[in-house]
Amino acid sequence: MTQLETSQITTVVTEHELHQRWKWYDYFTFNIDHKVIGIQYLVTAFVFYLIGGLMAMAIRIELNTPDADFLDPNLYNAFMTNHGTLMIFMWIVPAAIGGFGNFLVPLMVGARDMAFPKLNAIAFWLNPPAGALLLGSFFFGGSQSGWTAYPPLSLITANTAQTMWILAIVLVGTSSILGALNFVVTILKMKVPSMQWTQMPLFCWAILATSVLALLSTPVLAAGLVLLLFDINFGTSFFKPDAGGNVVLYQHLFWFYSHPAVYLMILPIFGIMSEVIPVHARKPIFGYKAIAYSSLAICVIGLFVWVHHMFTSGTPPWMRMFFTISTLIVAVPTGVKIFGWVATLWGGKIRFTSAMLFAIGLLSMFVVGGLGGVTLGTAPFDLHVHDTYYVVGHFHYVLFGGSVFGIYAGIYHWFPKITGRMMNETWGRVHFALTFVGTHLTFLPMHQLGLQGMPRRVAMYDPQFAGINHICTIGAIVLGISVLPFFFNAIWSWLYGPKAADNPWDALTLEWTTSSPPAIENWEVLPVVTHGPYDYGRTVEVNQTVQTASI
Amino acid sequence: MKQIPLGIVTLIAGILITLISLWVGQNNHLLPEQASAQAPLVDNFFNVMVAIGTALFLVVQGAILFSVIKFRRRRGDNTDGEPIEGSFPLEILWTIIPGIIVIGLGIYSVDVYTEMGGMDAISHHGMTHESMMAQPNSNPIGIGSTPANEGKPPSLVVNVTGMQYAWLFNYPDSNVNTGELHVPVGQDVLLNISANDVIHSFWIPQFRLKQDAIPGQATQLRFTATKTGQYPVVCAELCGGYHGSMRTSVVVHTPEEYDRWLAENRIAQQPEMDRTVAVNP
Known about the structure:
The complex is a heterodimer.
Chain A: H1 2-15, H2 34-62, H3 73-109, H4 117-125, H5 127-136, H6 153-156, H7 159-189, H8 202-233, H9 247-281, H10 288-301, H11 317-345, H12 354-376, H13 379-385, H14 389-419, H15 425-452, H16 466-496, E1 527-528, H17 542-545, E2 547-548
Antiparallel strand pairs in A: 1-2
Chain B: H1 6-27, H2 39-70, H3 88-116, H4 129-134, E1 141-143, E2 156-163, E3 166-171, E4 176-178, E5 181-184, E6 188-195, E7 200-204, E8 209-213, E9 219-224, E10 229-235, E11 247-253, H5 255-268, H6 270-279
Parallel strand pairs in B: 1-9, 2-6, 5-11
Antiparallel strand pairs in B: 2-3, 3-4, 6-9, 7-8, 7-10, 10-11
Helix pairs in contact in B: 1-2, 2-3
């Protein structure tokens, strides 16, 4: 282990002089510094978030009235498909895992870079062509079969665009596998020797669980999509029923990855929560081990729940029952985390920074999303609400109220470390208020729409639902506006914000022991860990506890 | 003034939360009217989940709100909170209680699903020869006979075909084809569902029943309508650009009305049937 680190350091030192700063153009090159790659991921992902958000605006404007009067129905389906695809594969996954994971994991475990820096850069550079393929597919009508791309619909609709969509997903899937491998090796092998396993920040536990999940499940999706690609372009018939293929087989291959993908999108966010909450509540995390192990439990159980997406599909009764129960069990480790965070707040001295507002907002939202998820996991009730707006409301609570809130909390929390400048807190609060109100206004009424009988993925609907849809559209416009204060705050602060101290929040994890922004090899001498990552309220002073020693 | 003991505050809060949750569970009015024998089963199950969910929601949100107000940092206070690292009994408690709740819900859901007819695995009745031959897989999947109807043949069989963007209903016993489903109230109806082009999903919100129509895989829904009236039939699986307009109705008649409707349609469609026979002897 020491050998690995030493060789790492020497190679890096020969390439760049210590304390050198990257120039702006370095961020547009094949750079192998994990911090540059982290920022590349975050900024690229945010660009795709804006594009996917504009598609969401178009979708909601279309749904303001029952008729298809704003978008052509095929274009509506293309927007709906690509909104989902971009938000999942080009925004949440790359921002949460690629962005925060790359920037933070080496800093948090006391490493100078990821285990395989070049592989890391390759993993990032697979993303822009994937995004270009998705956007380029609009010249061919855009893929229109939903982000699930169920055959036979995906086999007979917009073949060129669908092929581009498949290639894009295979690219980001490859990126995800390479990144996951890198994280596993980095966390297992490059942790600074003085850090015990129980002193490793919970974010790293979350990334470890995420990476294992990605390694196990992503290849299955790739397999399914390659078969689909062959069916579309090379005359095979894996999923063509008239030629002996089986359409339900695709759904199994797809959901074997895509349900765990939900945990890929939320586990790193849980990690961010476990970092942000103790710092700003000024209290140790409540139940470190429970939170660390529950990530691993979610990772394991999460592999055995995929059929709950197929309760109304071609699945036999025993399967519907087995997967009902396995799905419900996921609620237990998730609950452990929620209760742990609430207990961390309890008795703390909560500082309402923008990061903390988003973290508490997430906690509150996730309770709604999680409870809705439990109801959806039961086969008898799911028969009624499957593929309705109830599902749309539920997963937006989890993915917008959960993942996106978590990414915002992470950005406000680590912005000083990433850029060396502070963000404006007043505008951060405005951003939070607009986002919080907008989220409830958009997604809460959707539950009722679904219960009352409105299916999802429709461009036109029964006029009886017009009233509630109108509320959702107003909410979506509020959400659209809510991005503006963040966008301008981030850009302005990055350029002109007040200079950040090395440790503006008085946090105890290792990334705060280096300069803001961190030097190119992170530390002049690697830090020695003398205390846990969440030892708030102990008598020791923050800057005395972290001593540096030569290696 | 003496402070109220913590035990009593907790007790009162507990009683209040329980009462509110039970009330919300019973009076949420979130679901549309019930028109099938399965609907009350699903709704009772949903209401139980709403009651439990409301209780958990109130407890967790209440704790968050309380913390946010009570444990906010006061001006000028830069100290840290008390270094409490966890509590093993508390952690066990909030692992076991949700564990018991979800296992209980799991068992309850199996029970409800069985009552609805979901466990009637291999349907050995009601399949017409035509649909048998059209479907390569002969074990249809979906909602079968309820335990009460076990082994009895259904009183009415309708073949349902989904296609972009319409539903087609065929009454094999009376050679009637329609674009609208007509069933008699109070009778055991079996739908044999298939699809020609892409996957569709047959959903009647008022029946709380949904089953995908899958090319190459026979599926079924068996139900008893309990209330006369006209209800929407909705396609719930993305099937193309005009998926949203793939809607029709189910009309639940009284038995006499249903017989009249059937007789009228049989006569109306007779010439067409003759032609079909002539072309295809």
